[in-house]
Amino acid sequence: MKTAEEKGTLISIFKGFVGAERKVKIAVAVGLAGMMLVLLSSFIPTGSAKKAIKGADDVSSKYITQLEDRMMSIVSSIEGVGKVKILVTLENGTEYVYAEEGKSSGERSQSFDQGQLVKSEENASTEKKYILLDIDGTGEQALLLKQVEPKIKGVVVVCEGAGNPVVNQRVTTAVTTALGISSTRVCVIKIA
Hints:
- It is a single chain.
- 43% of the residues lie in helices and 33% in strands.
- With 192 residues, it is an alpha+beta fold.
- The strands form four sheets. The protein has a three-stranded mixed sheet with strand order 1-8-9, covered by helices on one side.
- The chain starts with a helix and ends with a strand.
């Protein structure tokens, strides 16, 4: 049988174990909460990311507005069209292609056993970086090679003369020719 002193020691060890286990649970919970915050923060755009998204939206929006205005000017000048409204939709936004410089390296290793090739390995690595320029002391910016305009998804033309098949065909031909799209992407409807 255990003495009171031994029982007291066992109880203090048990309490220490339970207390340590609780501390471990708390530490694990805090660690998991921290990881969740880091994970969630990757989904929230930062200020510069918000500006980039807003800038991309502005560029696409301006492109659509300019395109619609130009198309309205062209279509309204066709005989018999009358009052006209035009809607242009895009498949994607403006794409930017930046200048890059890169390095490639490779290694080849072969293992032989009694003059026979046993194993052959090739490792290749490529490293690419954007070419950065400091323009007017405003900070480094990537060198833009080209800007690819968005692809047009479709065009809707609503006009008074669309009920006339000749006018309808002229409008469709003008839009498809001006934008370089097929007639299946153009809808011409009579205004209500």
